[in-house]
Amino acid sequence: MTATLENWSEAPHNRWSFLHLDELIPTAPIPAATSWSPLAWRAGEDVLSIATPRHDAVGEVVGTGTVGAVVEATWTDGLVVLHRGDIVAEEYHGEMTPQTRHLLMSLTKTVVGVVVTSLADEGLFRLDDPVEAVLPELSASGFAGATVRHLLDMRSGVRFSETYHDPDADVYRMEHAAGWRPARPDVPASLQAFLRTLPRERDHGDRFSYRSSETNVLGWVCERATGTSLADLVSERVWQPVGAESDASITLDPAGVAVGDGGMSATLRDTARFAELLRANGRTADGRQVTPPWFVTDTLLAGDDCKRAFARSSSPTGMPGGHYRNQVWVPFPGRSVLLGLGIHGQLLYVNQRSGVTGVKLSAWPTAQDPVAYYDTLGAFESISRALAPEAHS
């Protein structure tokens, strides 16, 4: 069976294509650090044997298993867990190896969120600037009047349907425009041309609604404000500072524009280095502040308006009491847990209080699988409790 533009994201082809996307779609390199940061191993932790709850499709606990059983049951390509910076578990399945780049899907959004806020913190634009102040091309679109902050928190009033497996949903139409699917005569032939066609359906700043279009506009804002490609911005502002060992990559649309909502591919360990950056409040091991000093605190605490907007969402978030801020998910109220999530089973877990971070890269047969999601998040929570019980008291 051969993976093509028509089928690469579908099972069983995605088990191969998520590791070989640059053979199907043009990509730009995201150069690694010239001197990378080694990750230390800590022996003696049997992470895969830790007991963990199993769930049904609405998140109810229906049994108990082990972390290893969850890994086996959820189409895992790679899993890494760190505790206070040391690797305590690392697993590769199928064709994936420590040197293999895996498609991150929407974990890319969290990386872009760091780039956006770092540029705003340096004064290249303000978070309360309307996007058309940076991108006049969007003055006649539904994005007109939306601020950079609205897009970071996915609270614009733009109409964008993110219904997976609907060929006429906006998210699928955007994939045609981005070159992730074959060209369609009724869809613009580039990402930015497509974004200009999206209408507004309600007031900006209203309820949260998950829309991948927001992140692609943010990537465009970053490129326009700096005159630098998104790939180079990610390299300079994230990948090199965290001490990435390997080049990452990001897919390009037919016009050569990076797909910021989900186009990054990276190795498992380098993605874990990014997770460690968030655990350390945006500071690297050598003391360099990569994110703005306020990034993680603002993401975790947000504000009542942001939390109410999330609670009013018509999207099924599976995170009652949680919120979304700066392109990061905060699943639990009153706790220091951050998530990056991507369809087909990509998950980045950061628990600041317990010191546990983890990344699981997968190839679920479907874009969304509630059982696999709840079991995976539950497994990371179980690992965190086992390694740092005092943090869960």
What is the element layout, followed by pairings?
Layout: H1 14-17, E1 27-30, E2 51-55, E3 61-66, H2 67-73, E4 76-83, E5 86-92, E6 102-103, H3 107-121, H4 131-134, H5 148-152, H6 170-177, H7 191-195, H8 212-226, H9 230-239, E7 248-251, E8 264-266, H10 268-279, H11 295-301, H12 304-311, E9 323-325, E10 328-330, E11 337-342, E12 346-351, E13 356-362, H13 370-387
Antiparallel strand pairs: 1-7, 2-3, 4-5, 4-13, 6-8, 7-8, 9-10, 11-12, 12-13
Helix pairs in contact: 2-13, 3-8, 3-9
Q: How does this structure look, described?
A:
Helix content is 30%, strand content 16%. The longest helix has 18 residues, at 370-387. The strands form four sheets. Strands 5-4-13-12-11 form a five-stranded antiparallel sheet, sandwiched between helices. The radius of gyration is 20 Å and the shape is globular. The chain is built from 13 helices and 13 strands. The model has no long low-confidence stretch (mean pLDDT 96). It is of the alpha+beta class and 393 residues long.
**DSSP helical segment count:** 13
Provide the β-strand percentage band: 15-25%
Helix content: 25-40%
Mean pLDDT: 96
Along the chain, the helix and strand elements come as HEEEHEEEHHHHHHHEEHHHEEEEEH
Major beta sheet summary: 5 strands, antiparallel
Shape: globular
Number of strands: 13
Category by helix and strand content: alpha+beta
Q: Radius of gyration over alpha carbons?
A: 20 Å
- In angstroms, what separates the terminal alpha carbons? 51 Å
In spatial order, strands of the major sheet run 5-4-13-12-11
Please mark out the parts with pLDDT under 50 across 5 or more consecutive residues, or reply none: none
